[in-house]
Target: Ion channel
Amino acid sequence: MSFHSVANAAGVAIVTAQALKLMATLLAIRWIARHGREFSRLLRAHSDDFSEAVYWDLLDRTNARTVRPLGILEYRLQRYASAKPPLMAKSLRLARFMCFDFVSIGVASMALLYTASSPALTRYADNTLVALATAAAALIVGQLVALYAEACVSYAAMGSYGLAFHQASRYHDAASASVPYISEIKTLAGAIIYSLGSGAFILYFAASHGGDFASFQVSGTTFTGTIPDLLNCLYYSLTTFFTVETPEPTTGGARLAVTAIVTQAVCALILAMSTFTMYASSTKEPKGADAAMPAATSSAATPKAESDGRITQPVRTNRSANRTGALFWGGALFGVALTIAVRTRRSDRQRQGNGTAADQQSRSGKQADNPQGVRD
Model:
């Protein structure tokens, strides 16, 4: 088989995995919005008899199997693997990680963008591979925006994303940790690192295929020669993400690449402000009647579950669903306002800088026309 055939087949596989992962994330958002509160209540109700089998049963009872293709967080494959011999179980879990994990899909997508952009490899590529890489770049952005949206909906519905969602299979062990919100911070940090890395390769791909940036150009023709270009792209991905500086795009494709990074930055800022707002509220000590409540009353309010799993008493939480939603959306609105303020101020500085540069050029032109000056 030729390199063209292998590269195109790999590109089709990567884009297909991206599309399936995006579909699964969107379906997960719908499941969290519809069943997230019910699932978290059942999770807490089974604190005494919690196990991985109970976790899977709770997912079945909350219709998590409707999240195609493998259920929410691929739990159906995990359950199937647990019933197989150890070697087969490890193989299935490894296959899931290699083919359907955000990290592995992201790395493969970046490799596809590099293959379709690097001068050392483009002579082996064709228009089909470039089209696949363009689709992969768009799906990377769609996946990350969907990931941030999934986190936002999870916070609003369940009060947590990393702890009550991604680590729900060992929820009670994680919840008893000294700093439970470390899982939230790790999830947010991982998404930001993913955004920065993918943004660098998107800039490199755009610059290699007609995108013009005033701040940098890609010129490396060998593998080692492309390293400085990738470092430049990573720098501008970082500065654009944190709204410090952009590579000054001058063409449509370049502007689209910068817009993709800025969109992810807005989503990340909204999620970060919402996380901080809810974390700060959860660390406050209870006041009034809640602080004076006897221990016996608190234990009496602990939910009990019958043999069929139904909750016989309402579940007491640290904050009500309404308060959780209000805190989340308050942080989200603050994040939007902060983003708009930062972008507006940056635009004003750019206009002022452009005006100053124009004035300097005008004065330089006048001095060049009349080097000796005009005497009355």
Q: What stands out?
A: Residues 117 and 264 are 23 Å apart (CA to CA).
